[in-house]
User: What shape does this take?
Amino acid sequence: MGAIVFRHLTKSYRGTSAVDNLTAEIQPGRVTGFLGPNGAGKSTALRCLVALARPTKGRTRILGKRYQSLKDPMRKVGVVLDSRGFHPGLTAYQNLRILTTMGAIAASRIDEVLAEVELSDARNKRVKGFSLGMKQRLSLASALLGSPEVLVLDEPANGLDPAGIAWLRSFISGQRDNGVTVLVSSHQLAELETIVDDVIIINKGKLVASGPMAEVTGGERLEEAFLRLTAGDVV
Assistant: This one.
């Protein structure tokens, strides 16, 4: 079984399916790009995966279990879905300290992960003064606190400048080199092309392609294959 599994996942709102019968597997120790045009259902599928939304039908699994059944979930899965979840009046350190307390994680991890995302200099700065890119990095730091086996990242490049995007590419590759499974949703197709092993492409809630990138793209650039497979819908 894959490190992450979607089985016939369907999520409907008022009779309209945001995700429609999605079945896919993410293999362990690899970087998988989760792609689709705006409104394709990517974020909804990820929210179902980490128990922030309840599937209408079907199921999801991480490391063989439902997210809510994982023991010590912060040590199993690191999640970045939204960079707005921090208390603006607290410092970076204080926000992460709350999370380490909740997850029974040593406070010493805070400075380690801040260094890993290059936010050590902002350790004692209040989050309300952070740029969007800094908040994204802090979200990544929070995901790393438990040294998880799996990372689920939804649009982690939002707010990052070109240098930040280049840093993110190195960061994700480094996680894979350490044996971490990474599922990353992004509109940065040119950047993803350089780091992903596999891709899953959905459109209008339905799976249109999945597998090793070379197999899915058939020798095309990732952007060209994406536009062909989604009939040119806007990313």
